[in-house]
Amino acid sequence: MIDLSSVLALLALTAGTASETPANTLRWSARDEAGTFGYLIYRSDVVDGAFHRINPRIVRAHAESGEGYVFVDHDIKPGITYYYRIDGVNDKGIKKRLSPVMSKTARPDRRASPSE
After folding, report:
1. Looking at the domain that runs over 4-105, which CATH code has it been given?
2. pLDDT in tens, 65-107
3. Domain spans of the chain?
4. How far apart are CA 94 and CA 35, in angstroms?
5. Mean pLDDT (the chain, rounded)
6. Distance between CA 45 and CA 26 in Å, rounded?
7. How far apart are CA 89 and CA 68, in angstroms?
8. 93 Rama sector, left if φ>0, alpha if ψ -120 to 50, beta otherwise
């Protein structure tokens, strides 16, 4: 069994503030990127449901820089819980699941005032 914590460390999964357009932000770092070409982000609205890729372009690995990664999901609705996972793609095009399923509920957008 692969120890996911040795491959990928999820730093944060945050939601946008009430004054912003709703968004979920994924932040992660990789402990070892040898042979890694990049990352694919998947989302589902059910924890054990079908996951669909949400990043149109692969998040390219940058092993030399030592920096973490950030992906912002803007295509969400307030009050809905979303589930995310991250897969790695090696330099031969082979995918491998790197993260556990993570969840985040988008905060309601409080900018709209109720009609009177």
Report:
1. 2.60.40.10
2. 667 899 999 999 988 999 999 999 999 999 999 888 999 888 7
3. 4-105
4. 10
5. 78
6. 16
7. 17
8. left
